[in-house]
Write a structure and sequence with these properties.
The complex is a heterodimer of chains A (302) and B (373).
Chain A: H1 16-19, E1 27-38, E2 41-53, E3 58-62, H2 69-77, E4 84-89, E5 92-93, E6 101-104, H3 116-120, H4 122-132, H5 136-142, H6 156-160, H7 162-172, H8 188-200, E7 206-210, H9 218-235, E8 238-242, H10 246-252, E9 255-259, E10 266-271, H11 283-295
Parallel strand pairs in A: 3-8, 3-9, 6-7, 7-8
Antiparallel strand pairs in A: 1-2, 1-4, 4-5, 9-10
Helix pairs in contact in A: 7-8, 10-11
Chain B: H1 2-8, H2 12-15, H3 34-46, H4 56-71, H5 86-108, H6 114-146, H7 158-167, H8 169-203, H9 205-218, H10 227-233, H11 237-262, H12 266-274, H13 279-316, H14 322-331, H15 335-363
The complex binds adenosine-5'-diphosphate (ADP) and magnesium ion (MG).
Residues 69-70, 210 of chain A line the site of magnesium ion.
Chain lengths: 302, 373
Amino acid sequence: MVAVLRKQDTPAEHAPAASATGTASRIQVEQVSHGFNTPTGPLGVLEDVSLDIAPGEFVALLGPSGCGKSTLLRLVAGLEPATAGTITQDGTPITRPDPSRIVVFQDPTLFPWRTVWNNVALGPEAQKEAQRYSLPWLRSLGGAFTGSTTGSRTPDSAVASQKARVDAALQKVGLESFAKSYPHQLSGGMAQRVALARALVNNPRLLILDEPLGKLDSLTRLELQSELVSLWQKNGFSVLLVTHDVEEALFLAQRLIIFSPRPAKIIAEIAVDQSYPRHRGDPALARLRHEVLNHLGLGTSW
Amino acid sequence: MNSSINAVLDTGSELAPQPAEPSSFPAEHTHLPPEWRTQARQQKQQARFRFYAFGLLPVAAWGLLSGITLALPDKPAGFIEEWPYTHEFGVTALSFVVLWAIFTVLASFRQLPPTLERINASFRYVAPWLVASGLIFALWELLTAKLGILEPPFFAPPSSLFDAYINDYARLADSAYNSVKLLLEGILWGTAVGFVIGVSIGWSQRANYWIHPVLRLIGPLPPTALLPIAFVFFPSSHAASVFLIALATGFPVAILSWSGVASVNKAYYDVARTLGASERFLIFRVAIPAALPQVFVGLFMGFGASFVVLIVAEMMGVKSGLGWYLTWAQGYAAYASMYAALIVMTIIFSSLISLLFTVRNRVLVWQKGTVRW
Ligand SMILES: Nc1ncnc2c1ncn2[C@@H]1O[C@H](COP(=O)(O)OP(=O)(O)O)[C@@H](O)[C@H]1O
Ligand SMILES: [Mg+2]
């Protein structure tokens, strides 16, 4: 199936889409509709959503709370199958989770019984074990829960350098001195950084971010926004970001997609052509902000 | 001004490095009259030895105990003219008096090497309990042997425990050994089977379908109610007891492992799955570690239940162990032996629980604010 291509350590470049064709995925969401069966009857959540993310592109999703953004992310991650429509990664239909598409949730969801280092090492560890036990009988036993067994084949040299990869990921988010701490000893911002490192260590080709900075204080949030930009530029993966913060979306993303209230339909797409690093006070961004708020029905408060 | 401080205090050299602004930097004793300053210095020297007065209380309490034991005559009660081992008990109490006195003197010294400091700290910590225990023993000896208010043979003086331990040492040790062996065998089986069952029904719908109703039916039944039948069904009373102890331990372990696995935050599975985890990984590296805090609660409850079953089983059918010893001693109206056996039992069970908590604190270091046992 999909073989994960290891990223070469090329120096950072400012045009991620161009430099990163080998390490980023193209994601195509085609006429996807989705619903849930609830005790009070069927609940339509996504309605005919189509969306194309170019390799290395940074796309942000905006929409009213509860409209179905997180649901769309879960479908793209492969955590659930869509009711209707198809989602493909580089042309291959997405049927199950895979470490080439990593999700970072609003809560860091670090495993409290593991140290920071061991939390970051979770991906490589899980993938190695999945490989070791990928016997046919076990796969058939696994049913829906079985993770990818054929995805990321890790070459021997990469296995040998697993420790170095974890160290490097911790260094990228500036937490190497907290390797031996337990999650309950970290602040919210630090925990979310660890969650980022846990994602990055897998060299994902698509990073799925579900309001990753939503619960942080505003200063930490600004700080991490800049870090996200530089991580994206250095690593060159595609990013699908959900946020409720319009300014954050404008500061980070190349394209904004705006959803209607549930069931979510795409009501607008806004391209943000400003180059990186962006400036929060940029009048062009302020104009776009007005436009976005208009689409969200909040234009009058401008 | 600054030079006068140096003249009065030996430690003045510590103050010397700040000559730049002496007036804005008042030293501790600057404003004191000279004779007060000398007093402060003497106190500093005396601090190496400060008599630990509270230490006299344990000495007094245990002195009272040995005094009562040795000086007062025993009250004759029926066939007992004088309790055996009274003298030995008194002398032992006296030797503790000496020991507490030594510790009191030691605790009066300050700035000792770390090992001695640690001993001093422990002595100061237990001192109130030493007072209490000395008084309790003294009252006990007084009410039983000396005044006969609590009458023999149901109430035995503490000195008679000596008798029991010294004369029945072999039988008690053998009983304790057999009890521990039987208990551990049952607990190990119960923990292992209960844990596997709990995790299975927490994880798998099918296991839940088949095992859950059985658990609901059998679980609330006190295992002791099954004793008479178990003794018939099993080839030996030993096997029957192991089964019942395992049942008593296994039920709470199974229930709490189950609830532990069932209540794992579903987001943990999502995270692990996107990171490429197999089902095996989800069970062994996510569900079980997340459930462990609850498993330990189940173990704690299971241990308690297993103690009950052990003693009842030994009283009813097994021909060895502390429970058997209790009934045996009852047959001879040897109440002192029963007290002796109860003390051994307390120590064993309490140590097992302490061991469990030690293991838990090791395994769950990642938890904050765990209860210390
Ligand atoms: N597993 C589920 N079962 C039933 N309803 C769900 C489920 N997950 C989400 N929903 C519902 O779908 C709607 C969209 O949820 P979500 O995608 O989380 O919204 P948001 O855009 O705020 O991320 C909500 O009304 C929510 O209640
Ligand atoms: Mg959401």
